[in-house]
Amino acid sequence: MSLSHIRPWLAAVAQCSRRVSRTAASGTSKRFMSASASKERPLESTEDWTKFQLDRADNEALIEYFSQYGSTQTRGNTWQPHHSLHRPTAPANLTLSALLASGAHFGHSQALMNPNFMPYAYGVRAGITVVDLDHTLPLLRRAANVVRGVAAKGGSIVFVGTRADLRPVVRKAAERIGERAFHVGEKWLPGTLTNKIVMFGPDVAKSEQVIPDLVILLNPIPNVHAIRECAIEHVPTIGIIDSNVDPRIVMYPIPANDESTRTAELIAGVLSVAGREGVALHAEELARNQKARSQTRSRVRDRDSATARS
């Protein structure tokens, strides 16, 4: 084919390709161009400004109306694993889901289950005893009521957790209640309660209250000697009881997993919140008594002054 015949065909192909490229470029610009941006235009008159304000007011009204139907969850109110230690749940708000999430239902091997733990066992799965949380929840709330009652009467409470992972738990729980709560994070010294004169000295043992009103044990088995001393001194005890432990060793058992740090944080947090509520009730009672005494003194003073004038 001669060159004269090829040139018209090449010119037509080039013109077609330029047309296609221009169409593609314009289509791309239209595709990625914002529809709202194309409709926007500057405000040219007072009517435009008034219409803009009305549209904005309508949008704000719609947002305010539908905001109550949306989610209110934020980063601040979303649950995090460390909240069981720093933001414990109140006893009234505790649920089975929270206990289940903390692993409180895991017991020990079926071969290690104590026969007296049978009423608190839900069953066995894969050779592991499953704790019945339907018993754990009411017993935990009962223990919380005991802690609240002791704190409301001005009693002293001791948290005992001698494992390394339980030391910050008992410390935080005691700090949450206040000055009437104490914690033992190291080894329980034998004779702390039964040999108080030697442990604290005769002056302190006679002038100060060294016997607590309530002892809470997060790991009872390594602290059996502490439970014995509490029994000798008639101190009520609360303890987390696993499937390999006899529930009768403490006065108020809480059947749960005693090897889980999260379970210990949850239970200690619930009990400490109950103790804090009891401390608040005790402070209110003291304030009422102080007010009543001051009113009685004022009435007696007024009566004496009236008698003196007569």
Automatic annotation (TrEMBL):
<dbReference type="InterPro" id="IPR018130">
    <property type="entry name" value="Ribosomal_uS2_CS"/>
</dbReference>
<dbReference type="GO" id="GO:0003735">
    <property type="term" value="F:structural constituent of ribosome"/>
</dbReference>
<dbReference type="GO" id="GO:0006412">
    <property type="term" value="P:translation"/>
</dbReference>
<feature type="region of interest" description="Disordered">
    <location>
        <begin position="287"/>
        <end position="310"/>
    </location>
</feature>
<comment type="similarity">
    <text>Belongs to the universal ribosomal protein uS2 family.</text>
</comment>
<protein>
    <recommendedName>
        <fullName>Ribosomal protein S2</fullName>
    </recommendedName>
</protein>
<dbReference type="InterPro" id="IPR023591">
    <property type="entry name" value="Ribosomal_uS2_flav_dom_sf"/>
</dbReference>
<keyword id="KW-0687">Ribonucleoprotein</keyword>
<feature type="compositionally biased region" description="Basic and acidic residues">
    <location>
        <begin position="299"/>
        <end position="310"/>
    </location>
</feature>
<dbReference type="InterPro" id="IPR001865">
    <property type="entry name" value="Ribosomal_uS2"/>
</dbReference>
<dbReference type="InterPro" id="IPR005706">
    <property type="entry name" value="Ribosomal_uS2_bac/mit/plastid"/>
</dbReference>
<dbReference type="Pfam" id="PF00318">
    <property type="entry name" value="Ribosomal_S2"/>
</dbReference>
<dbReference type="GO" id="GO:0005763">
    <property type="term" value="C:mitochondrial small ribosomal subunit"/>
</dbReference>
<keyword id="KW-0689">Ribosomal protein</keyword>
